[in-house]
Amino acid sequence: MIASGKIAAVHVGKVAPLGCKRRSTAFLKTPVVGPVQITKTGLAGDEQANRKLHGGLEKAVYGYPFSGYAGWQADFPELADRMVAGGMGENLVISGLDETQVCIGDIVRCGAATLQISQIREPCNVFADVHGTSRVVRAMTRSGRCGWYYRVLETGDVAAGDPHAIVERPNPDWSVARFALFAASKAASLETLEALAMLPGLTPAWQARALKSLGKSRS
To answer: 13 and 26 in contact (C-beta within 8 Å)?
Structure first.
């Protein structure tokens, strides 16, 4: 085992109207007591309103580190009561690990399931609408407190209190924190883009973005 944390909470959400906004979202999640099945496309009982941006095989489950909430509460004291577990739209709250301690491509035993960290979470307009300010979007990009998505390698049940054990690490140089910094930057070296275009475990969409940027840089 390379590193280990714990599942502090499990959340699911249903698609529902978002207050006065003319949109529906499943961003708002509620905690689940007891085991929940993780399927290839996510947690049983969890939904996504926009399947182009959320969910699917490559972003089936969203994890967020428990340690991240304190930074949000400090940056947005007026929203402190919202910046708690579930406030990021996350499915799994992870204690004992953060973006600096997990890497793209990490294979994780999570309860009875096996997951793989596939990419960072990129903030969207729904995140801003839920919290009532676009500043949270900029803050997530700037701070790197983004959490991460998983693809599901083996289905199985997960519950609060289960271990989150990293059992394989193909990309030790590519922490989620480093990738978040790359995603937020305006420029990257050819060496970085070449590495990301073939990085094991990274989502095909991000590999394609790196390859496209590589082509532009070489032209």
So the answer is: yes
Identity (one letter) of the amino acid at 46?
A: D
Q: What share of the chain is helix, strand, coil (3-state, %, to 5)?
A: 25, 30, 45
**Pick from 186, 181, 217, 182: which is nearest to 196 by CA?**
182
Three-state secondary-structure class, residue 14: coil
With CA atoms as reference, report the closest residue to 98 among 83, 120, 81: 120
Nearest to 62 by CA among 102, 12, 23: 12
pTM of structure: 0.95
State pLDDT tens for residues 51-105. 777 789 999 999 999 999 999 999 999 999 999 999 999 999 999 999 999 999 9
DSSP designation for 175:
B
Cβ proximity of 119 and 149 under 8 Å: yes
DSSP, collapsed to helix, strand or coil, labels residue 8 as strand
The closest of 45, 53, 41, 47 to 27, measured between CA atoms, is 47
